[in-house]
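In this section we walk through a basic example: taking a raw amino acid sequence and producing a predicted 3D structure, encoded as discrete structure tokens. The instruction is simple. Fold the sequence below.
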Amino acid sequence: MTPTIKHAVEALVFASPKPITAGEIVKAIRAGAVETEILTLNPLTETKEAEVLAALAELKADYEQQERAFQLTEQINGWAMTTVKDVADFVRQLYPEAKPTRLSGPALETLAIIAYRQPVTRADIEAVRGVAVDGVMQVLLDRSLVTITGRAEVPGRPLLYATTEYFLQHFGLKDVDELPNADELRRVVLPKAEIPAEEKSAEAAADAAATTEGMHAAPGDAAHEAAHEAPAETEDEPAHVEQAEQAGHAGEEIAALELQAETAEVEPGDATPASEI
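The resulting token sequence is shown next.
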């Protein structure tokens, strides 16, 4: 067989232990072509990124048309070959010890609000859900799924939260526009929290304390970005039922993505205790 660009691209994506970019594929193909004995007859030494991208698109279409058990996906940090969700239960049997820690329903709903409407304040999230989110916000920070991006230009200057690059990697997304029903859910008008005057100074003080505590934490630690607040989420009836239901649906969409990504990422060394946050 005389290898073509398509062959080389498929082999590299398949063999790569992590997502690989088109640029990395180009370098590998050119370097591999140089190893052959007849350089003048090997067009792969002049491989261009546009050719690699065309081959990736063709392979992706091939797998989908043939209904293969694996697929080619473009993620934020490159291209990867993963199994499709329909065979997840079979693949999981190979690694019975690999049981990733999943997010709870409240955490998924909170994450969904942030993902679809970022950047948002904690008060805005609570206005949608109708409950306190201190506990779940800390979980999301600890797992590096969300981060603090700055402060809102409103009285009290509350912290703004957004998803991280790791969020995209974890859920196998190239960008947030690939989230299910992104356009539809972004059009939903969300209620804005009204902070009583007497609480504004308290929230500002709490945020200042969070920032100060974060300065003494290890880099990358969630405490570097927010204080560890103990209060757990309450079970009060959401104040805005329609918006809360939208958040719930969005949470379900992200839960489905998490299950799919979980199966694709299963490796023998990735086992974690089975538990739910």
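Looking at the output, two observations stand out. Residues 210-239, 263-277 have pLDDT under 50 and may be disordered. The chain has two domains: 5-83, 105-268. In the next section we compare this with other chains.
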